[in-house]
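Example record

The entry below shows one chain as it appears in the dataset: sequence first, then structure tokens.
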Amino acid sequence: MYKPRYTGYFCDVPGFALGHAMDYEGMTGVTVIRPLNKATASIDVRGASPGTRETDLLCAEKSVGEVHGIFLAGGSAFGLACADGIMDYLRSQDIGYDTGVTKVPIVPGCVIFDLAIGSPLAYPNGNMGAEAICAATTSDRSMGNIGAGTGATVGKVNGMVSAMKSGLGQASLQYGDVIVSCVIAVNAFGDVYDPFCQNEILAGPVDISNKKIKPTIDVFKDMEREASKVGGQLMNTTIGCIATNAHLNKSECLRISQMAHDGMARAINPVHTNLDGDALFTISSGDKEIDMNILGALAAEVVAKAIVNAVVTSEGIKGLYCYHDLQVAPAF
């Protein structure tokens, strides 16, 4: 694995474990966030083509206030089935919402579309979900072609023929005794930039003849105004989870997710398109106090850094270039 550009990992926030399962032949996978203590969460969805499960329960007005796991997965809507294995495992551990007759684990999640890179018949199922949560550890530092990032790609305006490999990224920041972290699977329609390094373009549609990136916006400008010329339909979506040891309720988790999308917008362009299902969870398990404006700003920064790490740690596969393959031929 290539080294990340920015420091920190999701599990730097105490009380969370992270686990992954992969199918490298089918090029898909799942990442599971497991809270080890009582945790509150919410989600903000900005993309127009999301694939989600149990996210309505995270609305502030809904009665359930605790989540027992969150998953990020490939496989498009098929990949939502990985929740079955996660729930079965948690139920076997007597973890879940107590209904009086049994405990029902609350496991929301999101999926990306990765069916075009490996096999369209390969997607995370219950077995893969169970494998991922069983593998969850508080010391996970996995990035790149792993978990939900196994089949992630970016820069698909011309379709998969010129797309680049992306993956899963992590990062964290600390402000006093408050820690905020992010894990994210970057499968964007648009390009990825490093907003902290002169807005360097890291990944986008590649001109195979010269191994250079042409930014998606420039490709748009060269196109006639025909929707049929835009490639990459349904092949996108960036999904992630922010964690913090700050004490937040569901409404406050939602607000942090909303502010954190600014980090996605700094690192991905274009973002939140009709062809993306971009979504960010925020999960809180702690008792630290912090101003919400500061926490939201930190969340946006850590999201952008995790996105950069997802691209620079990924390896080229299935005929797709990665960031490191193009360093001898910088973007124009």
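Notes for this example: The chain has one domain: 10-326. The first helix runs from residue 82 to 92.
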